[in-house]
């Protein structure tokens, strides 16, 4: 099994990025619950045949669809060790909890947080954002709100984030009972950064209306284009208005490890809380989200509870002053810290920072390829490692949507789509450490190839007098696509000559 | 690394269940964040020296401290595969999501839920309970509460659980904004089951006071003694009063797999939602919690959101009608389903059910050993696999607390403590599939040994005219303990003759 995974990772370029599951494979997942045992080797064989070939593809260097990390063999091995130890990091006194505490010290060091800061592994930034919103809620309303509920309080809280902020902020407002309407989405400037004047005005307006502003969320790396809010100005504003300053740095925060990018995050060290994922730019296998809170006492007050079966003892296995379950919603918690510990130790933060810088270089290289290609158009500034562009043409939204599906189907590249200023964009998020100029070139070439083929088809049909265009998503459509095989994607150092961005 | 873990699991009985970390080991976790790379083998060596020997011990058959599963090599290998694939199960169209859907079908089959039921992996039951409370909240207040917040609603919701229910129910009420005061803790009968008359009365009283009862949480396996509420009667009551019926089956729900235990869970098939963990009795490595919701549409309505970067396409990688992120708070989600898939396939549900039944048999065996030992006293009925007892003696709470710390320090057995009717109990939760009569005998023998030694010490001191007893938790105390080595714990089939319970 281990050899199979090493082979998979080593030869990932020989595989398609992604391929649709045939119906007969999908049907095999409908078999009944197994009452009798099956040989491990047979189950592994099933995994090799039915699961492995049909993964999402984010291990592959051609995956650029969403902000997913690529994983590493080191992370995989560490997860195997963690799983064998089978540690529950809810609390108690054992080495796995010490490893998580060490990561907290390291995360504090990365972001310049004080020793009073506490941290916690969670699934991902969605959960980390929820934790931050709950702490901010409880600080604003007083910790007694935990017992009394938000309806018992007279204050009507309002929060602020840019319109480019991730939807999990609104969802956190919903889940914690404040309601997503209480989140004001502040307009952005031309680079999708929160407009600070609009923010100040919105706060003023809410205060005038008798509401209680309590939280501003700055984004470090927006999901659509990787924009970074002016964190220093938000910190200053939050200080002045006594608001909680949370940074959603889901993927962008770790740019802090790249010396040339870190200045762009200036102000992050002044946040009251910071959420980010190690499984994105950190390349740690899923899932490994993190929440860091400046004032550990507030963090604890928002989550600690007392229960006889969770009583901390002074000695023995139930000892330990601070248990992780007192800092978040989870009592059962796997050993996420170990894969991060291995990743940081084996690669070192310098190399991780260099890799993060390299992905941004690749984005600039893609930007330059787009600039020199008349059929392509850049739709948003390249802030970090995300490039939003499109193939120019009539009925452009539909055309580019078809191009993206065709690229995904081809197995060569897997970008995704998003909307920029109302227009559908091909979105390439370059997160995987395996991605090189070769994959960028393949993306450009095959976008052109697919775009031309689709346009030719439209013209052919028009010439043939076809009055009705088929649905863009009809299964039969793929036959019209430019026929390409994933083995054409090229390897780094192959025949395609490229200059590193 | 893999060989080391196999050796670890194979020879776990040669190790102490748990041992305290020496100060010098703990200090090594204070080293600075590593900027430069380190050889993987060196980091692994560090893991072997500083982490592995100081784990919590739940892999060990002598661990009975909390309701932790023991893990399996199969689960470990599956987690390695999942980690190599590095799948994010937030959404999109790939095989890992199909594996999770298959688990949903299997979980429905286990608990007799209809095809409309939806499910989701989460970290653990704490999170699963939170999800259930949020769905119930939204159903009671209308889904618009997601936007407007609970304070905008006139209804004041109240929920009900037994006083033996897990603290995460109250925490869920806190986190979702309703406040933990709105949870009524209903008294229990002599077997720690919710008193149904008291429940009915509490609902009546709240209605009279203008409040809106919305949720009853039944517990399948209370944390202290493993009691199971009368789920069928709660189902009937909830139907009559139109209340949401949630079952917290964190560890007890999987008793459904054991034919002799399943009838005790009668009524669970009528729950609106059910939370449980695969990492407890299911022996799946941490973490693998699960939430099952009868009406998938309500589940979806409570969690789905719309975002451009999460747009579902009709074809390609972004296809798939139902994305897991629409059913819970997580967008980044590891591939928990794979270790459950491997566990259920390789062992089969019959064998898992037999193993669960066996742990309950061991609890009855421990009960019989306590009954035949005059120095020991049972403090609560043995409902499933948890046994609460104590060593009789003066200053019993303090004495038993010292016994438990001494047992943990000895490395032979690791029970925990809880309070039953105000009295400190030694709590043995027999969850690990590796536990046998030998470990039960060792627990009894060494409880007696420690109890006698501690009592003798008190008498010695009294005889010597010592006027001041040392603190029960002073580090020096351990020198007075009965000296035992973990190698005395015995192996199954060894010299200790025992009858399987």
Detailed description of the structure:
The structure is a homodimer of 501-residue chains. By secondary structure, chain A is an alpha/beta fold. The first copy, chain A, folds into two domains: 1-26 and 44-71 and 348-465 and 478-501, Aspartate Aminotransferase, domain 1 (Alpha-Beta Complex), CATH 3.90.1150; 88-334, Type I PLP-dependent aspartate aminotransferase-like (Major domain) (Aspartate Aminotransferase, domain 2, 3-Layer(aba) Sandwich), CATH 3.40.640. Helices cover 39% and strands 13% of the residues of chain A. The first copy, chain A, contains 14 helices and twelve strands. Chain A has helices at residues 2-10, 23-28, 40-51, 73-85, 95-111, 125-141, 145-148, 167-175, 196-208, 231-241, 296-303, 336-371, 396-410, 437-463, and strands at residues 63-64, 118-122, 157-162, 183-186, 212-219, 244-248, 273-277, 289-293, 376-378, 386-391, 414-420, 423-429. In chain A, the strands form two sheets. A seven-stranded mixed beta sheet of chain A has the order 2-8-7-6-5-3-4, sandwiched between helices. In chain A, helix 4 (73-85) packs antiparallel against helix 12 and helix 12 packs across helix 14. Chain A is globular, with a radius of gyration of 25 Å. Residues 468-501 of chain A have low confidence and may be disordered. Chains A and B meet through helix 1, helix 3, helix 4, helix 5 and helix 6 of A and helix 1, helix 3, helix 4, helix 5 and helix 6 of B.
């Amino acid at each position: 099994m281990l050899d199979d995974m090493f082979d998979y990772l080593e030869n990932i370029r020989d595989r398609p990025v992604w391929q649709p599951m045939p119906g007969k494979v999908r049907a095999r997942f409908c078999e009944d619950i197994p009452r009798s045992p099956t040989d491990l080797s047979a189950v592994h064989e099933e995994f090799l045949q039915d699961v492995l070939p049909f993964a999402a593809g984010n291990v592959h260097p051609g995956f650029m669809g969403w902000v997913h990390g690529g994983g590493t063999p080191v992370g995989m091995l560490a997860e195997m060790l963690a799983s064998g130890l089978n540690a529950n990091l809810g609390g108690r006194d054992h080495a796995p909890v010490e490893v998580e505490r060490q990561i907290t010290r390291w995360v504090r060091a990365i972001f310049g947080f004080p020793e009073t800061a506490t941290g916690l592994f969670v699934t991902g930034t969605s959960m980390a954002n929820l934790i931050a919103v709950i702490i901010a809620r409880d600080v604003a309303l007083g910790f007694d709100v935990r017992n009394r509920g938000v309806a018992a309080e007279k204050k009507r809280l309002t929060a602020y984030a840019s319109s480019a902020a991730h939807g999990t902020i609104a969802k956190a407002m919903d889940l914690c009972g404040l309601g997503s309407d209480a989140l004001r989405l502040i307009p952005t400037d031309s680079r999708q950064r929160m407009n600070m004047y609009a923010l100040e005005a919105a706060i003023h307006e809410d205060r005038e209306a008798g509401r209680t502003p309590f939280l501003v969320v700055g984004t470090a790396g927006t999901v659509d284009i990787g924009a970074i809010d002016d964190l220093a100005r938000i910190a200053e504003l939050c200080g002045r208005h006594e608001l909680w300053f949370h940074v959603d740095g889901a993927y962008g925060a770790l740019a802090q490890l790249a010396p040339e990018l870190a200045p762009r995050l200036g102000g992050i060290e002044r946040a009251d809380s910071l959420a980010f994922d190690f499984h994105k730019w950190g390349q740690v296998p899923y899932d490994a989200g993190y929440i860091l809170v400046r004032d550990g006492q507030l963090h604890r007050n928002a989550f600690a509870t007392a229960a006889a079966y969770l009583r901390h003892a002074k000695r023995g296995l139930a000892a330990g002053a601070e248990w992780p379950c007192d800092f978040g919603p989870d009592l059962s918690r796997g050993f996420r810290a170990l894969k991060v510990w291995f990743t940081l130790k084996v690669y070192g933060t310098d190399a991780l920072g260099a890799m993060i810088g390299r992905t941004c270089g690749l984005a600039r290289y893609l930007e330059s390829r787009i600039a020199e290609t008349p059929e392509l158009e850049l739709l948003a500034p390249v802030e970090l490692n995300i490039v939003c562009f499109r193939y120019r043409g009539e009925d452009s939204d539909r055309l580019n949507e078809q191009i993206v599906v065709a690229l995904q189907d081809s197995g060569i590249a897997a970008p995704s789509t998003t909307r920029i200023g109302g227009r559908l964009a091909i979105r390439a998020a370059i997160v995987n450490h395996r991605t090189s100029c070769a994959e960028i070139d393949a993306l450009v070439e095959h976008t052109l190839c697919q775009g031309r083929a689709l346009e030719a088809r439209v013209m052919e049909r028009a010439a043939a007098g076809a009055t009705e265009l088929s649905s863009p998503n009809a299964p039969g459509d793929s036959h019209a696509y430019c026929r390409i095989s994933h083995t054409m994607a090229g390897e780094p150092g192959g025949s395609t000559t490229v200059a590193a961005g």
